[in-house]
Amino acid sequence: MKKPSLAALFTACLLFASPLALAADDGGKDAAKEAKGDDYAQLPPFPADRTVRQQTTIDGRSLAYDATVGSLPVLDEKGRTIAEVMFVAYTVPGKDRPVTFALNGGPGASSVYLNLGALGPKRVQFGAEGNSPSDPATPHDNQGSWLDFTDLVFIDPVGTGFSRARVPEDEAKKKFYSTGPDIEYLSRIIYDWLVKNDRLMSRKYLVGESYGGFRGPRITHFLQTRLGVAMNGLVLVSPYLDPSADDNGDLSPLPWMLTLPSIAAANLERHGRLTDQAMADVVAYTRGDYVTDLLKGRSDPQSVERIVKRVTELSGLDAEFVRRSGGRLETQAYLREVFRDEGKLGSRYDSNVTAWDPFPFAPAQRTNDPILDGIIAPTTTAMVDFITRTVGWKYTGRYNALSYEVNKAWERGEEMDKGSVQQLRQSVAIDSKLQVLIAHGWGDLSCPFMASVLIVDQMPVMGDPNRVRVAEYPGGHMFYSRGDSQAALRRDVMKLYAAH
């Protein structure tokens, strides 16, 4: 059994324009290819970088800052521009300011979620229960912003936001839409921004969310060992570190160990009993009696009874449903079952965020995830308005908050399956001062916190054991959509930055 990975959750629909009809001979093929290449070459240029002065209030203090929207080219080995990457930078005048680079995931997600949801100076509410796509997408001062202690640069990978390839689709797939090339050009974008802005000597940090958390250790290691730039700290928000961790649920107990604590957290939250101690008890059971009874299987006939009894208590589900599943709660089945009586679906990204199920009698879920579909409108509207009107970076292309085209084109090969745990260990080993914070929402079933807990616990202690740690907060994948959890993340991150 293999549960759907985070990357696989995007709807598999291809929206690219139809390819040119194939000519009858090789010359026709070459002509078609040349014509298509010319189309890319004739794309209108991006506007010049543009900066405006803005103001926000953080922690009761007014802060003036420069907001810059701009782009950097991606060059091939011949110096040809093969893509243009858009960034949004927030900088505060002053000496010795650190700079933080931020990336989201997908693959196929722009950086708008970290920008307008978690770290940036302005915030738009999305991703929590009760939020609607048609709510006013009005930015407000972000009390959880990091801008008062670090400059911020948000990067949109090729095919997301307004960032675009300048080569045909087949070449773009090879150059950008797989693990190795993705890490290499994004690392170079960070390097180029530092050089362009005379910031190579600044303290440097990287934050990645979801698949951006997969990117984080790999970019850090590539910068360290290939481009000669060392990060001072790494913050991984709901990271997707090991895609193979949930493989083979028919034999391995690991897939069920990863998700049970997040299901229990959601149930505790629904009943107002979610506390650190309650979750410590859940984790202790998962690591102890639960995994032991799973491994016993039919060698101990009472093991199933013990599992069913305890998992029913932890999940709040009907005992017969738990019994039929053998205490092994498959994520999508759980998300349909937990709110079935209300005619709703829970989200994989936060099972307590719901939407109506338009096909409640279908044998399997037929609609996309409630959170994924619900956050595209507010984030896109707010970001395009900010870029084109507030900053005045005038561009008429389509803004891709979530690109299903990129996700479908992505090459999920051996390197992606390997995850990024190896690069995380190597980066920490290379730099004895590197600080790493791995932040999760307890209720996230797409990138469950238990995976990171087990990954870190299996790492050797390299110096101070606290310089790589996991922190959990109420909420789901975007736990920062809840004010208290966002404030707690900010406090933990400030401690990490103060370590240098």
TrEMBL record:
Could you tell me the keywords of this UniProt record? Carboxypeptidase, Glycoprotein, Hydrolase, Protease, Signal
- Which GO biological process entries does UniProt record here? proteolysis
Recorded hits in InterPro entries, A to Z, give: AB_hydrolase_fold (IPR029058), Peptidase_S10 (IPR001563), Ser_caboxypep_ser_AS (IPR018202)
- Pfam families cross-referenced by the UniProt entry: Peptidase_S10
SUPFAM superfamilies, sorted: alpha/beta-Hydrolases
Q: Where is the signal peptide?
A: 1-23
For this protein, what is any one GO molecular function term?
serine-type carboxypeptidase activity
Record's protein name: Carboxypeptidase C (Cathepsin A)
Query: What organism does the record attribute this protein to?
Result: Dokdonella fugitiva
The beginning of the lineage is: Bacteria, Pseudomonadati, Pseudomonadota, Gammaproteobacteria, Lysobacterales
